[in-house]
């Protein structure tokens, strides 16, 4: 991935600035400014990409490609929008293209607990946890496994809505979808997860991108 360790002077000078100001500095030739943009947005971009491709190495490659593409297209950035929206849309489109190219392969949507590549990296906390916190963590992990079983086009709307707290309109614009399609996918994804929690098959949909 990008090296994100600007000089001490660069950190002091740009850390407190807005994304829009950083973009302007990038366009003026300030390399440290773009490194700080990467540092700010690399983690959320990685999570949205991973939710779509569910593979650590593929996600890392796509994040790298996302920021390279953003850097090359920086002059096209619309200052009326937020940088996070713009970079997330680039990442989402690249991920969708990646999945479409992968469609000819046979891919299981059931996560294998032995396959670490299908798990997002988690920080381990060795300190003892109160029972309630531990219970909540287990519930979160269980829900995460259900989300992982969804087809990519359902996973991404769930992630944008609940993890990133995007509005329906923002999701529609990010994914270039009609608003009704976004609402329908969220509704069906929620129904599928509820069915799995009840031990039912629910929609039992494939990884296809057309639904």
Give a topology summary.
Blueprint lengths: L7 H7 L4 H9 L3 H23 L2 H17 L10 H19 L29 H19 L2 H12 L4 H8 L3 H19 L14
Helix pairs in contact: 2-3, 3-4, 3-5, 3-7, 4-5, 5-8, 7-9, 8-9
Describe the structure.
The structure is a single chain. The longest helix has 23 residues, at about 30-55. It contains nine helices and no strands. It folds into two domains: about 1-105, Orthogonal Bundle (Rna Polymerase Sigma Factor, Chain: A), CATH 1.10.1740.10; about 130-210, Winged helix-like DNA-binding domain superfamily/Winged helix DNA-binding domain (Arc Repressor Mutant, subunit A), CATH 1.10.10. It has helices spanning about 10-15, 20-25, 30-55, 55-70, 85-100, 130-150, 150-165, 170-175, 180-195. The protein has about 210 residues and is an all-alpha fold.
Number of beta-strand segments: 0
| Strand percentage | under 5%
**CATH H-tier superfamily of the largest domain:** RNA polymerase sigma factor, region 2, helix turn helix motif
Number of helices: 9
Mean pLDDT: 76
- The radius of gyration over CA amounts to 19 Å
Specify the overall morphology: elongated
> What's the CATH architecture of the largest domain?
Orthogonal Bundle
- N- to C-terminal separation? 33 Å
- CATH class group of the largest domain: Mainly Alpha
Q: Quote the CATH topology of the largest domain.
A: Rna Polymerase Sigma Factor, Chain: A
Number of domains: 2
Largest sheet entry: none
């Amino acid at each position: 991935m990008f090296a994100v360790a600007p000089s001490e002077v660069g950190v002091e000078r740009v850390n407190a600035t807005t994304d829009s100001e950083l973009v302007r500095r990038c366009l003026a030739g300030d390399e440290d400014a773009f490194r700080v943009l990467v540092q700010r947005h690399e983690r959320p971009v990685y999570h949205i990409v991973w939710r779509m491709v569910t593979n650590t190495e593929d996600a890392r490659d796509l994040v790298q490609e996302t920021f390279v593409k953003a850097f090359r297209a920086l002059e096209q950035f619309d200052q009326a929008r937020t940088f996070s929206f713009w970079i997330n849309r680039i990442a989402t489109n690249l991920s969708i293209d990646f999945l479409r190219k992968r469609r000819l392969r046979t891919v299981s949507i059931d996560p294998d607990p032995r396959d670490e590549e299908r798990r997002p990296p988690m920080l381990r906390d060795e300190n003892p946890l109160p029972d309630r916190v531990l219970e909540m963590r287990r519930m979160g992990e269980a829900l995460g496994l259900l989300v992982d079983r969804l087809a990519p086009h359902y996973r991404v709307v769930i992630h944008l809505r609940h993890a990133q707290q995007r509005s329906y309109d923002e999701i529609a614009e990010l994914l270039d979808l009609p608003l009704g399609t976004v609402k329908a996918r969220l509704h069906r994804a929620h129904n599928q997860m509820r069915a799995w929690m009840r031990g039912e098959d629910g929609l039992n949909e494939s990884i296809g991108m057309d639904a």
